[in-house]
Amino acid sequence: MDPSIQGIIESAIQAPSGDNCQPWHIKVEGSTLQLFNRPERDNSLYNWERRASYVSQGAFLENLTIAARKFGYQATVRLFPESSAHPDHVAHIELTKSEPTEEPLYGAIPLRVTTRKVYKPYELTHQEMRALQESAGSAAGNALAAEIHLVTDAKEKEVLEFVEHIKRKKA
User: Fold this and answer.
1) H and E: helices and strands count for the chain
2) Cα distance from N-terminal residue to C-terminal residue, the chain
3) CB of 64 within 8 A of CB of 7?
4) Chain center to CA of 35
5) How confident is the model over 111-170, as pLDDT tens digits?
6) What one-character-per-residue DSSP string does 46-66 give?
7) How far, in Å, CA of 22 to CA of 9, rounded?
C-alpha cells in the first residue's frame, strides 16, 4: 500500500466514536476506499437507528479529507452509494493525487483524547436541564432547530430501552 494512503487511513481511524467502538470497516483497492458501517460494533441505546455510528463515520471522513490534503491527495466522497442494495455502505472515496497543502487542523487529529473509563451515571441538575432546553429553543426558526425531551423517569427509561432492544432484534 502507498505509504501516503496508509497515513491517510491512520489519521481517519483516529476519529472519535461512542465508547471508542469504531463502527466502521474499510476496503482499500489502490486509491479507492469503501467505508462500511458495522452495526454490531455499536449496540448502545444512544445509537438509535445508527445515528451515533453515522456521526462517528462523518468524523472519520472529515479526518480522512484533512489528512488527504496534507499527504497530497484530493478526496472525493460519495455518500451512501448503494443505499438500497447495501445499506451499510456509507461512502465511496476516490483519492486523486494533488499538491500537498498545509492543513491547520491536521495537527489536532492525534491530539484528540478519548475517555475509555466507564461513564459515571449521574442526574442532571435542574439548572443543567434548563440550559439544554434553552439552547434548543434558541435555535428555533433556523435549520438547526431542535426539540429536547429529557427522560428523567426510571420507568420511561426502561420502556425506551425495551423498545430499542426490540427494534434491534427486528433489524
Assistant:
1) 4, 4
2) 36
3) no
4) 12
5) 877 666 666 777 889 899 888 877 776 655 555 556 777 888 888 888 888 887 787 777
6) T-GGGHHHHHHHHHHHHHHHH
7) 13
DSSP per position, 105-165: TGGGGGG-----SPP---PPPHHHHHHHHHHHHHTTTSTT---------HHHHHHHHHHHH
Which pTM does this prediction carry? 0.68
CB-CB contact of 52 with 18 (8 Å): yes
Per-residue pLDDT tens for 62-114?
A: 999 999 999 999 999 999 988 778 889 999 999 999 999 998 899 999 887 76
State the DSSP code for 39. G
Q: Extract long-range pairs of 20-24: CB within 8 Å, 24+ residues apart.
A: 20/114, 20/116, 21/56, 22/56, 23/47, 23/53, 23/56, 23/57, 24/53, 24/56, 24/57, 24/60, 24/90
**Cell, residue 69:** 490534503
Burial class (CB in 10 A: 0-12, 13-18, 19+), 14: middle
What are the φ/ψ torsions at residue 164 (nearest 5 degrees)? Answer: -65, -40
Q: List C-alpha distances in Å: 111 to 16, 52, 56.
A: 11, 22, 17
